[in-house]
Design brief:
It is a single chain. Helix content is about 20%, strand content about 30%. By secondary structure, the protein is an alpha/beta fold. It has helices at about 5-10, 60, 155-160, 200-210, 225-235, 255-260, 295-315; strands spanning about 20-25, 35-40, 50, 55, 65-75, 90, 105, 110-115, 115-120, 130, 145, 165-170, 175-180, 185, 195, 215-220, 240-245, 265-270, 275, 280-285, 290-295, 325-330, 330-335, 340-350, 355-360, 375-380, 385, 390-395. It is elongated. The two termini are about 35 Å apart. The strands form eight sheets. A six-stranded mixed β-sheet has the order 7-4-6-5-9-8, with no helix packed on it. It binds ligand LQZAQKY5, molybdate ion and magnesium ion. Magnesium ion binds near residues 248, 250, 253 and 295. Magnesium ion binds near residues 250, 253 and 295. Its cofactor is Mg(2+). InterPro entries: MoaB/Mog-like_dom_sf, MoaB/Mog_dom, MoCF_biosynth_CS, MoeA-like, MoeA_C_domain_IV, MoeA_C_domain_IV_sf, MoeA_linker/N, MoeA_linker/N_sf.
Amino acid sequence: MVQVHKAEEIIQAEVRDFGTESVPFEQALGRVLAEELKADRDMPPYNRVAMDGIAFRYEALEQGIKTFKIKATQAAGDRPVEIESAEECIEIMTGAALPASADTVVRYEDLEIQDGKATVLTDEVSKGQNIHAQGKDKKQDEAVALANQVVTPALIGVAAAVGASQLQVKMLPRVVVISTGDELVKIEETPLPYQIRRSNSYTIKAALETYGVQADLLHIPDDIATMKRQLNNCLQQYDVLILSGGISMGKFDYVPQVLEELEVIKLFHKVKQRPGKPFWFGKHAQGALAFALPGNPVSTFMCFHRYFLPWLEASLGAGPKRKAYAVLTKDLTFNPPLQYFLQVNLSQNEQGQMLATPQEGNGSGDFANLVEADAFLELPAEQTNFKQGEVYQVWPFKQLV
Ligand SMILES: Nc1nc2c(c(=O)[nH]1)N[C@H]1C(S)=C(S)[C@@H](COP(=O)(O)OP(=O)(O)OC[C@H]3O[C@@H](n4cnc5c(N)ncnc54)[C@H](O)[C@@H]3O)O[C@H]1N2
Ligand code: MOO
Ligand SMILES: [Mg+2]
């Protein structure tokens, strides 16, 4: 049995590099960028008009000119229309490229327009106002996104702006999520009174999709020969096997035995934690990793977030997971010498602190309450009494505000 930090260390020592691939930028959401993205030209690419109104030369105001002859109207996307003299202006729209002969824009709200002439009504005009200067956001060839950044909707927009229709991203591991257990039936079936529907694999598959990982699902019955054959296939075909169930003390918990018979080297079995104590982790001679998670749904869920996701993020080069902390809002006691992962609800107080309020759980087998919870609060094994106001690391599994 290993401590939580040791289990984490062993898993992190098995971080892999799956290489890079090019994908259409629209399909890159959630992937990890493997290249620096550069501005193909200045951003903005021209002096961009920021208000609908007129453009003219500021020197006109200095000469006492307040009324301008409207030479033309220029929409966004039009080639710039130049003015010939300080008495002229162009009616110009937001997003248009400022003509080189003008340097100042006054918005319609500060104008009176009559008989083809525009009069400036305000004295508060400064040179260069209402213009976004060319290259102010980014210069041509400057980086707009860095390698190892996660592709977000904002990044996809920037990629579009610089014409990067393909993005080089980190390749994802091939993952199979395996359920075991003869009590489990397909979700579309009506279970017999002593059976249940499979759920763990769907939770994990859904969580993986956030990272762009499209995992395959497989169910293996509690039969050694079948399990051996199927797991052997999986070890050849996948980079990662995430299993749930079949790893504890039960007569039909065959997973560790079968994995070891298939030359998956056990790197640890059992972690000093609750839930999730029976967690088994190993690696195959040819490289595949087996995360054999305990079958109780809360245990599966916790181990997946606490161990698998940090491994995935490190393998994709997204850097170590940013740590989050929260303040415990109630006293509690936990006697066993195990790291306790407490289900909590997260909120923020007016001081901007993240608060963790324990959620009444019912052990790791009852998981309907996970829908309400936001995170696991990690309470150290060497401590028994935990006091309101103390701060602990938290593992959120829901999108925070
Ligand atoms: N004698 C002992 N018994 C148990 C111990 C122990 O230390 N000594 N540990 C307990 C703990 S803690 C856990 S956690 C479980 C882990 O059991 P397994 O990993 O062997 O999982 P199973 O026995 O196959 O199933 C446990 C439980 O989870 C349900 N399950 C399994 N897979 C799914 C799934 N895909 N979807 C939904 N539910 C699933 C299964 O029906 C069982 O109820 O062992 C304790 N026992
Ligand atoms: O690890 Mo078990 O999850 O305590 O039920
Ligand atoms: Mg069992």
